[in-house]
Amino acid sequence: MGLHNGDKMMRYEEWSKLARKASKKSLWMVHFCTGCGAVEMPPVMTSRYDAERFGITSMATPRQADVLLITGYLTVKTLRRVIQVYEQMQSPKYVIAFGSCTINGGMYWDSYNTIKHLEKYIPVDLYIAGCMPRPEGIINAFIKLMKLIDEGKARGWEKYQKYYDRYKENQRRVFNFEIKEEQKEEKNEEH
Ligand code: SF4
């Protein structure tokens, strides 16, 4: 006798819960060492804070990573690479952004070549406030992310799929702006 839809749903929910419990204890990260935050990662990973005891470790390729860390301010040029890396990661995938620069531009709020709000271009599951957050703040963010995964609330990757056109439009806008600025500079150099 086959399963009813209700039973299938229940089984699906049970399996998802189990998968979430397993995946939150095995977070492999790829860190894009932009900005000043990269320097906080060695103490997070080495004996002082020893993030591996939580199942957190680094991964060389995006295709096997679960978490993308953006460790500070981002230029438009770097944003292109960040998007490529994010799109290569398998779902479910999560993004943690470090420092004020990723939230609102921070001290680069009026810079012409850095982006101000990372979440306009890729979904961010967690921000760590500060300039720059200390290793304790980073560990704390991972623990919070584990909780969100467990509760099924870390769903940025679904948002990216759902609002894909909107993200692409924002990305196009910022890249077109960059191309126009480069053309302007070239013209100025010619004169
Ligand atoms: S928030 Fe501060 S520490 Fe972080 S990238 Fe910006 S300027 Fe650097």
* Count of separate DSSP helical elements: 7
Name the beta content range: 5-15%
Distance between the termini: 80 Å
Question: What radius of gyration results from the CA coordinates?
Answer: 19 Å
Secondary structure tally: strands: 5
Stretches where pLDDT is under 50 for at least 5 consecutive residues are none
| Biggest beta-sheet profile | 5 strands, parallel
Q: Order of helices and strands, N to C?
A: HEHEEHEHEHHH
In total, the number of domains comes to 1
- CATH class group: Alpha Beta
Mind explaining what this structure looks like?
The chain is of the alpha/beta class and 191 residues long. It has a single domain (23-190), classed as Rossmann fold. The chain has helices at residues 5-24, 41-45, 76-88, 99-104, 135-150, 156-162, 164-190, and strands spanning 27-32, 56-58, 67-70, 94-98, 126-128. Strand 4 (94-98), helix 4 (99-104) and strand 5 form a beta-alpha-beta unit. The longest helix is centred in the C-terminal third of the chain and has 27 residues, at 164-190. It is globular. Iron/sulfur cluster binds next to helix 4.
